[in-house]
Amino acid sequence: MGIPARPPVRMEWMGNLGQMKKHGTRVREVCHAPCRYYRDVDLDAAIAGVGLDFDFWDKHWICPDCGRETIFMCSAGPGTVFRPMLTQ
Ligand SMILES: [Zn+2]
Question: What's the rounded Cα separation, in Å, for the pair 23 and 76?
């Protein structure tokens, strides 16, 4: 008997780009080690590119440094940990 896996809690501030913009959510694109590339995502630029309804859940872009898939993480604000936007 293990501990059942809890589905990730998706609060409104972790929602689509429109919700994230409204809540001032910080979003970061992260590459796994060893390359450790990351960049802060400009929500305004993202909204201009893909629209308010887009979300970063389970999205993977390509790391410009190593070519591996990146993931997205988000934080409710300063001093708050970044959580991975992955459903599994
Ligand atoms: Zn990388």
Answer: 8
Alpha carbon of 81 to those of 6, 8, 19, 26: distances in Å? 19, 15, 18, 10
| Domains of the chain by residue range | 12-84
By the 8 A CB rule, do 30 and 18 touch? no
Choice between 64 and 88, residue whose per-residue pLDDT is larger: 64
Counted residue by residue, the chain has a size of 88
**What is the reported pTM?**
0.84
Distance between Cα 28 and ligand 1 center (Å)? 13
46: helix, coil or strand?
helix
